[in-house]
Amino acid sequence: MYIAILLYYYRGYMLYVKTFRTPDYYPRFTCKCGDCRSTCCGGWGISLSLDEYLRLIGIDCSPELRRRLDTAFHIAENPSPERYALVTPRWNGRCPLQREDGLCMLQRECGEDMLPAVCRYYPRAPRAYPCFECSASASCERTLELLFESDDPVRFVETELTFSFELPGSDVAIDADYYINMRSRALAIISDRTLDFSARLKRLGAELEAYDPRGFDQYAPDSTDSATAADSAIADCSKLFSALASDSTTLSQYTEVCSTLAGSFHGSMYAALAMKYPKLDIYLEKLFCNHIFYKGFPCSLDEPERHTLADEFAPLCAVYSLCIYVAVAALPESPSLFDLVDVWSKLFRVIEHSRFDPFIGTLMRRDKISPYRLLSI
Among 158, 208, 346, 353, fewest CB within 10 Å belongs to which? Predict the structure, then answer.
């Protein structure tokens, strides 16, 4: 009996069932598996816990899967119980367990329950503090496709969800009422379709600064003449992109086209992109509503050392400018909506899965890049 209980726990069946607040698309989210154009199995470092690693190296499986599993992992340089081993990618950057048809050999043969947690739950991001909330990252193309299926504003619904692990708490005390009220106001401004999208971000910045001006003086004011604002914004955004791409294999594929464009494009990149996508403001609105919810605005739930609203607002302006800049540079002459989804999902691999906010904020303060000027791109 004791051994049976241990095995039950060991296999990861400790279920965590709660009602979460989610974006309205979330209950319809399912992985595209082999139909994904840019699978999460390629180009990323995938980690396993010690329990997951031990479970997989001892699993009863076919000889072919056993051969792949025996060479699929290596121990992390500084292993911990939570991040003990890493997937060793093949020469093409893909997971060694991925079949030629794009499906996972481990899942197909042994079932979803045997997958490491990162594979089972990506791009979902559940949290228990200060509220039970869950959304999906914009780094997944399916998330963006679901967001852009309709022109309706993003709504938030109550959804019962189950996870096979207990959600971590936080060492940072967060006032739930402050968190909910500030985020609700931000989402209302972002969804205000009486304004152009850049004007919505400007209004958000003005309200945040009025509420708590601390830190805003550390960022350069927008002193650029309106006639040259777009060109200045392009130059500023080029600096931000170059810094991000220098350490990102995902963005490095865009380095050449972005560097070429930075020196040759004059005028409004936003206007150029809006010519290709008349619904651009709707796409940006829904993208940012999801991003604000996903990142836990305004509390930087994954970056507790950041406390000011200025350090929340500046990265949002950077996200906006990068979305425009990389799309204009990388999209074909007559792009489809899928083309835009592919570019933005790759960009959000960096934005939502790295220390993007503190990195970009430090860079903007150091190089005197105005958040408001970036909105002129």
Answer: 158
DSSP lists the bridge partners of residue 23 as 156
User: Taking residues 103-117, what's their average pLDDT?
Assistant: 86
Query: Does the structure show a pLDDT above 70 at 305?
Result: no
In angstroms, the Cα distances linking 87 to 16, 72, 90, 247, 264 are 27, 6, 9, 20, 41
DSSP, collapsed to helix, strand or coil, labels residue 215 as coil
Q: What is the DSSP string of 313-371?
A: HHHHHHHHHHHHHHHHHHS-SS--HHHHHHHHHHHHHHHSSSSHHHHHHHHHHHTT--H
Indicate whether 69 pLDDT > 50. Answer: yes
pLDDT of 290-303, one tens digit each? 999 999 999 865 55
For the chain, the farthest-separated pair of C-alpha atoms sits apart, in whole angstroms, at 77
Which residue do the tokens 């963005």 mark? 251
Token reading at 131: 């509220």
pTM above threshold 0.85: yes
As to burial, measured by CB atoms within 10 angstroms (0-12 exposed, 13-18 middle, 19+ buried), residue 362 is: middle
Q: How far apart are CA 106 and CA 71, in angstroms?
A: 14
